[in-house]
Write a structure and sequence with these properties.
The structure is a homodimer of 392-residue chains.
Chain A: E1 4-6, E2 11-14, H1 22-27, E3 32-37, H2 41-44, H3 47-57, E4 61-65, H4 74-86, E5 91-96, H5 98-110, H6 119-122, E6 133-137, E7 149-154, E8 159-164, E9 172-175, H7 185-203, H8 211-233, H9 238-250, H10 266-277, H11 281-296, H12 302-313, H13 321-339, H14 356-363, H15 377-386
Parallel strand pairs in A: 2-9, 3-4, 3-5, 5-6, 6-9
Antiparallel strand pairs in A: 7-8
């Protein structure tokens, strides 16, 4: 086991009616705030007014950037960075889901450099610093509210790429599960599939992890499996929304990884689906996940797949390994496609196979994704192909 | 479910050979360091030299305070605070187990006030600020390396009391499981009983907790149950030491509590045992724990005790509630007394019943400890009495 550094300083205000602290938290960094959001939903649900009231009460000067799109584009980053520079912004406040917060994080970094911020992605230029980011989360899904990553799309190059840096970790997150009461069933499902997949990316790691972290990840997966269907059926169930929201942060904030390297296998496969066909990220992951599990099963990966079946799905350990893994994959499919009601294959999205070659090449960056199972271009292509057929 | 604020900014260097970062971390706060430790063991195992080398390399001026005792006394706090004031200390570095770190935390607070720091305990004077504390942990037990508490004894008043404040949370903790290879079996056992009890104090809470946190706490308890005996048998087992060490921090850093109030029931009962008879804290907790579980079982507490039996101990949920709880308590006793080899009753320590009345009165502060089960003086006395008999 290697060393690791645990450093996760995000302060979280969890629960309803805490937004009055937004102003005092933002004021710690200066007078000028960039206020980022997406469409008009935060004006309808009252979040805009509450956040503004708190910022105004703290005497802050607010510049607005609205219209940040789902799967945020680099154009929005350019716009935001310009506003930061023009208005001497001290702190970026993001009110929204993963897209708005991701965009705000990269705006915060772009405000500190003179070059094209797309280079953070295209050239992997390290993000050395960023303006402080404070977010008000409106969707339990990406975990960006407590992690060091952001994903941005570039329509010109048909790319969707991620960047990571400790400088991107939000200083403060406001997480009110009641805000997500209005999240529609489809988005709740896609977000939950995203959370589940984040946990699985770390759970299916190349090396054994700390026992205590394995058990934590299994508990988190069970949390998503238990509460996502409840939140879809009964959207104002606070217990369900609270468990999903807090799980979304702990699924991906780095705690689960322990001393393991960060290896993402399913995410790069999915990113090509969103970039090429605009498929909702979590839904794309739902389609990829069981096909990945099926494709990677071999002698070396079997023990971990069995653990997944026994500890997460409660499958009888007395069964044969093959039976356990068959059942585990079937239960995963049942959860994602039957309980979460997500379309189970790519044909349903009008996808044809003609781009799979190029997509697979991009997903593995013309090399190998070393991880739980080493994935080359042909492996990824085969997984895309398996995603075309309905599940059993 | 109430709101809560999660704010746990401790940076952790986990694993061997990270102590070279001590100097750079301490230097963030200024030039003058108070270096606190206990007996001479850190000189024998090389930690003293490594820590000093890193502090010297960073050009820091170091003042030493050695001889901090187990169950640290307020006298050591007076001494340390004086050294801080005389030497314009900017940062307190503690190398040791819970006692040294607790003492360093209160020294760091005492250095910032002009009154007698015993008032933090006797008068509950709030701790508003403290010098930054950095620790190098040598024993997995109290969790003080990542929490906001410290416990100090006052031999004059026969008191052992705790204080808590966000100002006491260490800035940085160095946690090297290999350092604990030399911890003897008895201390490993007592430390593990302490960790287990910390988790149970939050698990047996007055209100339902978040499902995801329940599952995490059960995973943590299973971690202690699995690895404590391994660490006793095979002291240089890194996997066991690493799981115990990281579990010790997460047992008590506040994450598990969620929106529940902090209620400690078994700790105040035990503190009287240490204060009156010098019983090792974790050993005292081991003796109290199963008697507490037995004493508090009633209709209201039963569902949670059953959950404890099924999820932590894997007891068949088809059994009757009474059978499940009987088995859960028996398994807890077997773990603490047979596997950890801890003496199972107070008579073995020469304790007689004559002080139980006064001890019980002190434990509940002449009132009621409201919690999972409301404990008054007579309840606590009955628990002490049950601790006199060997377990079944």
């Amino acid at each position: 086991m290697d060393n690791f550094i645990y450093n996760l300083p995000t302060k979280v205000y969890f629960g309803p009616d805490q937004l009055q602290h937004l102003g005092e938290e933002a004021a710690k960094y200066g007078k000028n705030v960039l206020f980022c959001y997406g469409g008009g939903s935060i004006k309808k649900n009252g979040l805009y007014d509450k956040a503004m009231a708190s910022l105004n009460e703290a005497g802050l000067h607010v510049t607005e950037l609205s219209g940040i799109e789902p799967n945020p584009k680099i154009e929005s980053v350019y716009k935001g960075a310009e506003l930061c520079k023009e208005n001497h912004i001290d702190c970026v406040v993001a009110v929204g889901g993963g897209s708005v917060i991701d965009c705000a994080k990269i705006i915060a970094a772009a405000a500190c450099v003179d070059f094209d911020p797309w280079e953070f992605f295209s050239k992997k230029t390290p993000i050395e610093k960023a303006l402080p980011v404070i977010d008000v989360l409106t969707l339990a899904a990406t975990g960006t509210e407590m992690d060091d990553c952001a994903v941005i799309s570039n329509p010109e190059t048909v790319d969707k790429m991620g960047a990571a840096s400790p400088a991107l970790i939000p200083k403060v997150s406001f997480m009110d599960p009641a805000v997500t009461f209005s999240v529609p069933a489809y988005q709740t499902a896609a977000g939950s599939a995203d959370i589940l997949n984040h946990i699985m990316e770390d759970y299916f790691a190349p090396r054994p992890n700390l026992f205590m972290l394995d058990r934590f990840m299994e508990g988190l997966m069970q949390t998503v499996i238990r509460y996502a269907p409840i939140a879809m059926e009964d959207p104002e169930n606070y217990e369900a929304r609270a468990n999903l929201m807090w799980a979304s942060s702990w699924a991906i904030n780095g705690f689960n990884r322990g001393a393991n390297p960060k290896v993402w296998s399913m995410h790069p496969i999915e990113h090509q689906l969103t970039a090429n066909y605009g498929i909702t990220h979590g839904h794309g992951l739902a389609i990829v996940t069981p096909r990945y599990l099926q494709y990677v099963r071999n002698e070396k990966t079997m023990p971990r797949l069995v653990e997944f079946g026994v500890w997460v799905w409660g499958i009888d350990p007395a069964l044969s390994d093959d039976e356990i893994v068959d059942q585990a994959i079937a239960k995963t499919e049942n959860f994602l496609f039957d309980q979460l009601k997500l379309t189970d294959n790519l044909k349903g999205f009008g996808v044809s196979e003609d781009r799979f070659d190029a997509m697979a090449e991009k997903a593995c960056k013309k090399g190998i994704i070393h991880g739980f199972f080493d994935l080359g271009k042909e492996d990824i292509k085969a997984i895309y192909q398996a995603c075309m057929q309905p599940h059993a």
